[in-house]
Amino acid sequence: MIKLFAQKFIQLQIQPLYEFNRFADKLQKKQQDNQKQEFKKELEFLASKPQFTLIDFRQRALDGLHKLKKGFKYQISSGNEETEQQLTLQRQVLNAMFDEELLNPDDLTGDQKKEIAMVAQVEVQQVNFVLSQYGQIRNMHSWVRDMKERGEPMPDNQEDMMYRYKRDKPIKKSFIKFEMKRQNFSMKQRLQKLKWGPRKEV
């Protein structure tokens, strides 16, 4: 009798932990599925655009904020504060720009950036940061479009995309010259290091 009672007691103690682990596993799987879906949508969005302007970048930020604010359940599975802060900054800066500025960001002068910063109530450095983020996405857009035109399969995940992007991305000559001066490697080693990153020891 005592033995049966002890077994029952142990089961009652273990059951909540088991249920919690099952819940955690389901939550993790759902998060991974959501990330895959969002990644696929992001690639489709980039591939569908003949050009990627700041107007598209602003819409991307607005869509991202809308998704983050769907509710507590969604935030548990995919949202985080850092992402929301970045998207909010992008929205502030881009909403402070005229349509002409959104269509021609490369022509922005220092005075225009100061005015944008004043309207958005941010620092000029933050305006430059948002424009830098846009430049990165625009480069990614060109790469995705080229890959689509070549008929290559799209990356399956973020890691695959970054590996292939780094492999295909052209290296600026000025950057190569700068790196050549910094390290005493052979020409082949230097180019490999710039293109693939540091070699990992096996």
Describe this structure in words.
The chain folds into two domains: 153 residues, Signal recognition particle, SRP54 subunit, M-domain (434 Repressor (Amino-terminal Domain)), CATH 1.10.260.30; 40 residues, no CATH class. The protein has 202 residues and is an all-alpha fold. It contains ten helices and no strands. About 7% of the residues have low confidence. It is flat.
In brief, what are we looking at here?
The protein is an all-alpha fold and 202 residues long. The protein has two domains: 2-154, Signal recognition particle, SRP54 subunit, M-domain (434 Repressor (Amino-terminal Domain)); 156-195, no CATH class. It is 78% helix and 0% strand.
The helicity comes to over 70%
Biggest pleated-sheet summary: none
What is the residue-mean pLDDT, rounded to a whole number?
75
Distance between the termini: 58 Å
Question: How many domains would you count in the coordinates?
Answer: 2
Oligomer: single chain
Strand content: under 5%
Shape call? flat
Order of helices and strands: HHHHHHHHHH
Instruction: Flag low-confidence runs.
Output: 72-79, 178-183
CATH evolutionary superfamily of the largest domain? Signal recognition particle, SRP54 subunit, M-domain
DSSP summary: helix tally? 10
Q: How many strand units?
A: 0
CATH topology of the largest domain: 434 Repressor (Amino-terminal Domain)
